[in-house]
Amino acid sequence: MNTLSRKIIMAATGLFLCFFLLIHFLGNTQLFLEPEHARLSFNAYSHFLTGNPLVKMVSYVLYASIIGHAIYALLITAKNKAAGGSYKKDNRGRASKWYSRNMGVLGTIVLIFIVLHFQNFWYVYKFGEIGLDTNGNKDLYAVVVAAFQELWLVVVYVIAMIALCYHLIHGITSGVRTLGLFHPKYVRWVNIVGVVYSVVICVGFAAMPLFIYFTNSK
Amino acid sequence: MKLDAKIPQGSLEDKWSNYKKTARLVNPANRKKLDVIVIGTGLAGSSIAASLGEMGYNVKSFCFQDTPRRAHSVAAQGGVNAAKNYKNDGDSIYRMFVDTLKGGDFRAREANVYRLAECSVNLIDQAVAQGVPFGREYGGYLNNRSFGGVQVSRTFYARGQTGQQLLLGTYQALMRQVDKKTVKLYSSHEMLDLVTIDGKARGVIVRNLETGEIERHAAHAVVLATGGFGKIYYLSTLAMGCNGSAIWRAHKKGAFFASPSWTQIHPTSLPQSGGYQSKLTLMSESLRNDGRIWVPKKADDNRVANDIPEEERDYYLERRYPAFGNLAPRDISSRAAKERIDAGHGVGALKNAVYLDFSKAIREQGQAKIAEKYGNLFTMYEKITGINAYKEPMMISPAAHFSMGGLWVDYELMTTIPGLFALGEANFADHGANRLGANSLLQASVDGYFIAPYTIANYLADQIRVGAIASDDPAFDKAEKEVKDKLDALLAIKGTKTVDYFHKSLGKLLYDYCGLARTKEGLEYAIVEIKKLRDEFYKDVKIPGDSKTMNAELEKAGRVADYLEIGVLMCYDALTREESCGAHFREEYQTEDGEAKRNDEDYQFISAWEWPGSLDAEPILNKEELKFEFVKPTIRSYK
Amino acid sequence: MKLHLKIWRQKDRKSEGKLVDYTLENVNTHMSFLEMLDTLNEELILKDEQPVEFDHDCREGICGQCGVVINGNAHGPLKNTTTCQLHMREFKDGETILIEPFRAAGFPIKKDLKVDRSAFDRIISSGGYVSVNTGQAPEANTIPVSHEVAEAAFDSAACLGCGACVATCKNGSAALFTAAKITQLAILPQSKEERKQRALRMIVQMDEEGFGHCSNTEACEVECPQGISVLNIARMNYEYNRASFLKFKKK
């Protein structure tokens, strides 16, 4: 497989994950509701997601995307490391943004975060002991609120969201280019939209643990 | 020796088509059995190698640069002429022919010049088809600009990088053939000698510049497209590697060298700023379309340009040559600048420059328009000098640029050695005593695309009977041994002065005595001095390293050793031509108002020099009479 | 001015190289960077040392032969400038300057500061041309090209082939070089016929030469002497995707 094809896989999986983030984000905004309302609505939403076969299919695509994105990132990085030169004095960084050169590092942070995030909620929801709410849905909301009583976890989530934000800012621009958008006007628009999108999503996600931490702390 | 230019019969218009009609051909099946060596990958070299490859010959292409795309054609800025008459301003092949002949001060062959103009139209077609992004009108049709020495707009251009774009077109055509394996490419290889067998060119000895290895290559014909040798002046607009070695070694094997002293001194180069300087950067002549050249009326005026009021500026070209003004031909512009500088009106730190002023053009057309036309040149100027030329005038000065002289060739571009062809700037043919702007890209390309493919085929037609040329012939042994001995001898000197010292000294001598203006006394003095310098070189040059590895100093030494011989021939050439014509200005032969005075009665010929067999003997002059059947030579006036 | 130089010296392709210190007095600020190296070499030769091998030819910023990494930047501190057009006025008296060759897997070092960029030739050879033989061309004005397209094609065609894009790319990617040629020929009407095959072949060749992936960091555009836009790379991606799709459809 040639370099461009590998990059297309990165772009396609990456952009799909970006799209997923939006859905995930929109769903999770329910956490900002008034607590009792939030509990029922959030739990119902979670129940809907686990029950629906279509959503189930999408979730497999999602897992595949995450794994594919990570594996190809490794392949690409290995090749790039071998192909690029290293200098005794290196000032090449002046010509590009730091986050564009460190997508691998940012991506690794995000990946570690994903594992933690799965363990925190997905694993508990699927296999853990979990109570029911008044509607008889698993009370994931309670798990979320309990988890975000831990300050260290909140801090980890916020840091992860910062990493994700920079990863997205470069990833969206780069991915769209890899797919072949070359018209200067549209490229400019995509850049702007990409930055806004990344910031909104990541600030929003980071606000969730913070919101819960501060509204529920005694 | 009687020189036969082999001009075909017929009227001027029919000569080339008559030639093509009767030229011999090679059967397509036989072509792959015929080997051709092409030295040089500029416009002429790449285009002939590509064209021959397309036709099916077995081609080997050599260049000393690390890739063919670096050949110095790449640096031509302004444009390429063609008699397309797209501007409907009265242009025609005939008019272009007359302009070129007149621009060359009637020291070129009518038939060659006419053919150049005739083929010019095909070149534009070819280049466009190759994807060369020439400047376009908004309607999508090709645009033209005007250039020095003519009154029509016939110059096609790709911003200020026309040479680069044309060369890339040709380079790509060449690389296409490399991919098809009809051409084998040898980059970083320098030709060190020509091999002749039974008087015919049969191969070359080259040195692999990376490994130092000496290689033999045999072929049925050898093409030299090695460009000009203006770098002999050390300070010039040429690339550092440009050299006269290939044609000089061919000369010493029997090829006549024509008009070596006719070097065009370009009027719009950046002035020298110090002794460390290695080259003079050219600013395209196209700048003279909108720039006005002036010096302060007062000698030794130390005010900055913008402080000198309009009435105290001397627009000397507009004053002396009102019809052509700032677009007067190069030799005339250069000489006029030298005259003003010598009279104490020069500007800049070393008082060796004149102003090229865009303020009027910027006022009239706006800065944006000027930036669109010359933006890259203004940027380049600022990079080198640190001066913003939109705000104050550029400073320019004359610099050695183009060799009108070169190997003598007949109408078929074949030298006096059968099977040895010289193309582009390496031959002497089409520009007479002065080349018009934007004609060099044209000549190099036309030679390679449209002329040599026919004439080389004509030569090769009976070579099929010869069979493959063996590179173990004693002639190769001998040539290889000579080359190796010469390299070893150079390395063995181990003196105290670097190669550049000798090159700079030679350059200074030539600028002073065989440059813009020449005198009998000066030339005689220079011959003695160059010979002395040559003796010193062989006693005292210091070359580090060995010949078995990459060694840039050794490469330079070989080139300078040849320059020290070419320099003497240049002086003989200038000395024996007791007239002024084009770039050759003998101070003894000028009119009262300082214009060149040609002597058609005694000097209407090409000086073709023959190698006398040793450096101690005087070179032998052969004359090719020039006949003007169609245009009567007139006094060249641009007033 | 006085300069301390640290220059990469390497005997040949196989040898290990190292940085060697030199001190150069009396450097004139109007000198070009290469003239400074000339001056150093002149001194080295007279001191019976080996001069530094470096690539250069036209010394006016167009041939693309020169190119070294100066203080960690391809072609030195100025953006969009070749090494030969860099002048010593950009440096301070007493400054230490580190000079290294362009480094990338696709550019093996030949000696000292000279690198082998023949990979670029092979990329062009694999498809960076229009398949037109000498003499086949139609009259030039039968192919109108709008002013905008001609100018855009020129912007891409202006590439010098110096390799600064590769040297400055953390991945040693030749995407900008390859893309510039693909783009130029994809937008001109006379070369559109072959765009599909051209894109596929040139990209395969680019990979075979050992260049890395493009990460769209855009550093290449900044250091490119001609300022070739990174959007050429996006255009190459488009051409590649288009060609792959059409190839797939044909199957």
TrEMBL record, chain A:
<dbReference type="InterPro" id="IPR034804">
    <property type="entry name" value="SQR/QFR_C/D"/>
</dbReference>
<keyword id="KW-0812">Transmembrane</keyword>
<dbReference type="InterPro" id="IPR011138">
    <property type="entry name" value="Cytochrome_b-558"/>
</dbReference>
<keyword id="KW-1133">Transmembrane helix</keyword>
<protein>
    <submittedName>
        <fullName>Succinate dehydrogenase</fullName>
    </submittedName>
</protein>
<keyword id="KW-0472">Membrane</keyword>
<feature type="transmembrane region" description="Helical">
    <location>
        <begin position="99"/>
        <end position="120"/>
    </location>
</feature>
<feature type="transmembrane region" description="Helical">
    <location>
        <begin position="57"/>
        <end position="78"/>
    </location>
</feature>
<feature type="transmembrane region" description="Helical">
    <location>
        <begin position="140"/>
        <end position="169"/>
    </location>
</feature>
<feature type="transmembrane region" description="Helical">
    <location>
        <begin position="189"/>
        <end position="214"/>
    </location>
</feature>
<dbReference type="GO" id="GO:0016020">
    <property type="term" value="C:membrane"/>
</dbReference>
From TrEMBL, chain B:
<dbReference type="InterPro" id="IPR036188">
    <property type="entry name" value="FAD/NAD-bd_sf"/>
</dbReference>
<protein>
    <recommendedName>
        <fullName>succinate dehydrogenase</fullName>
        <ecNumber>1.3.5.1</ecNumber>
    </recommendedName>
</protein>
<keyword id="KW-0285">Flavoprotein</keyword>
<comment type="similarity">
    <text>Belongs to the FAD-dependent oxidoreductase 2 family. FRD/SDH subfamily.</text>
</comment>
<dbReference type="Pfam" id="PF02910">
    <property type="entry name" value="Succ_DH_flav_C"/>
</dbReference>
<dbReference type="GO" id="GO:0050660">
    <property type="term" value="F:flavin adenine dinucleotide binding"/>
</dbReference>
<dbReference type="InterPro" id="IPR015939">
    <property type="entry name" value="Fum_Rdtase/Succ_DH_flav-like_C"/>
</dbReference>
<dbReference type="GO" id="GO:0009055">
    <property type="term" value="F:electron transfer activity"/>
</dbReference>
<dbReference type="GO" id="GO:0008177">
    <property type="term" value="F:succinate dehydrogenase (quinone) activity"/>
</dbReference>
<keyword id="KW-0813">Transport</keyword>
<feature type="domain" description="FAD-dependent oxidoreductase 2 FAD-binding">
    <location>
        <begin position="35"/>
        <end position="441"/>
    </location>
</feature>
<dbReference type="InterPro" id="IPR030664">
    <property type="entry name" value="SdhA/FrdA/AprA"/>
</dbReference>
<keyword id="KW-1003">Cell membrane</keyword>
<dbReference type="InterPro" id="IPR027477">
    <property type="entry name" value="Succ_DH/fumarate_Rdtase_cat_sf"/>
</dbReference>
<dbReference type="GO" id="GO:0005886">
    <property type="term" value="C:plasma membrane"/>
</dbReference>
Automatic annotation (TrEMBL), chain C:
<dbReference type="Pfam" id="PF13183">
    <property type="entry name" value="Fer4_8"/>
</dbReference>
<protein>
    <submittedName>
        <fullName>Succinate dehydrogenase/fumarate reductase iron-sulfur subunit</fullName>
    </submittedName>
</protein>
<dbReference type="InterPro" id="IPR017896">
    <property type="entry name" value="4Fe4S_Fe-S-bd"/>
</dbReference>
<dbReference type="GO" id="GO:0051537">
    <property type="term" value="F:2 iron, 2 sulfur cluster binding"/>
</dbReference>
<dbReference type="InterPro" id="IPR036010">
    <property type="entry name" value="2Fe-2S_ferredoxin-like_sf"/>
</dbReference>
<dbReference type="GO" id="GO:0009055">
    <property type="term" value="F:electron transfer activity"/>
</dbReference>
<dbReference type="InterPro" id="IPR009051">
    <property type="entry name" value="Helical_ferredxn"/>
</dbReference>
<comment type="similarity">
    <text>Belongs to the succinate dehydrogenase/fumarate reductase iron-sulfur protein family.</text>
</comment>
<dbReference type="InterPro" id="IPR050573">
    <property type="entry name" value="SDH/FRD_Iron-Sulfur"/>
</dbReference>
<dbReference type="InterPro" id="IPR025192">
    <property type="entry name" value="Succ_DH/fum_Rdtase_N"/>
</dbReference>
<dbReference type="GO" id="GO:0022904">
    <property type="term" value="P:respiratory electron transport chain"/>
</dbReference>
<dbReference type="GO" id="GO:0009060">
    <property type="term" value="P:aerobic respiration"/>
</dbReference>
<dbReference type="Pfam" id="PF13085">
    <property type="entry name" value="Fer2_3"/>
</dbReference>
<dbReference type="InterPro" id="IPR012675">
    <property type="entry name" value="Beta-grasp_dom_sf"/>
</dbReference>
<dbReference type="InterPro" id="IPR006058">
    <property type="entry name" value="2Fe2S_fd_BS"/>
</dbReference>
